[in-house]
């Protein structure tokens, strides 16, 4: 059975009641406080404080603070006045049991309501992020369409001007080149010129002859086999082919249920479109919006490593270090087998996980990730400097322990 706390104290004003409960050395994290309008419970094993209040209070306006070895509970009275006692003066265990059970039921409903409100806020935030991305996409499309309209109008105007110039030039040529006239002829002689007369007819221009059409033929096309960047004796053809198969399978994978897809628009069902939107949010500093878009893309396709790696970068910006480690680890797991095609992605994921480890002061684990990145890109001076800085921290910590 728990040990009941009896050395509590309380004070009051016309509108407020203050209760001080000593915690007897218990840590603040281990203190559980339950407060309703008729019942107060402070539980820190093996101790328990219960108060069946003298009169009901306004639970929504109450507050509780834990610190300096004491829990201070502030309660707002529903009606102003001075209480004769803090608790009801009765030994009726059945009545107290009913009050306790009613308080627990009310507390559970309150927690459930808060959970639903939190879930609703998250859905609203996710919806707002998607609407914002859709708005940006619409504005971008409208801007591109306006540019196309301007170019189309400009081209139409230039074409109309060119056609007008062509017609004017044609009319000028016709004025300069009148129809040929016959001289010195009569109808009886068939229009032939008489002897001694010459023909004064201008030579007409013949249209330029078009070249004959090209002869029909077939073009033979041959394909060379895929060339890998490494020498044949050092190449990893099976691993390269396995990586290509995994990439192709990842692009075809779809993880979300049909019911979830029904609520999404056509663009929102495309992980690549969501990744592009998330990248733009990240560049704009909207890390929460980027995480929402990356998370939705992951729900649609859980086999694209870039989604996890980029979400890890967002968590790093928000100092969600454990989540950053989890996402970077998932990205590295998907980036297998290790081939040249995914080397840059493995470097990024290793650095992000190593940075999160170092910010958690887990320098040995962080150094391992930086060394893994250096093994892939050994000539990166920034990586070399960061790895040496981590070694100096580790050696400094070891030296300080030896001195102590």
Automatic annotation (TrEMBL):
SUPFAM superfamilies: HSP20-like chaperones (SSF49764), TPR-like (SSF48452). GO terms for molecular function: nuclear estrogen receptor binding. InterPro entries: CS_dom (IPR007052), CS_DYX1C1 (IPR037894), Dynein_assembly_factor_4 (IPR052004), HSP20-like_chaperone (IPR008978), TPR-like_helical_dom_sf (IPR011990), TPR_rpt (IPR019734). One of its GO terms (cellular component) is nucleus. The keyword Hydrolase does not apply. GO terms for biological process: determination of left/right symmetry; epithelial cilium movement involved in extracellular fluid movement; heart development; inner dynein arm assembly; nervous system development; outer dynein arm assembly. Transmembrane segments: none annotated. Keywords: Cell projection, Cytoplasm, Neurogenesis, Nucleus, Repeat, TPR repeat. TPR repeats lie at residues 347-380. Pfam families: CS. Residues 104-124, 139-218 are annotated as: Disordered. It is found in: Cell projection, Neuron projection; Dynein axonemal particle; Nucleus. Residues 3-87 form the CS domain. Residues 111-124, 139-155, 164-180, 197-208 have a biased composition (Basic and acidic residues). It comes from the Eukaryota. This is Dynein axonemal assembly factor 4. It comes from Parambassis ranga. The gene is dnaaf4.
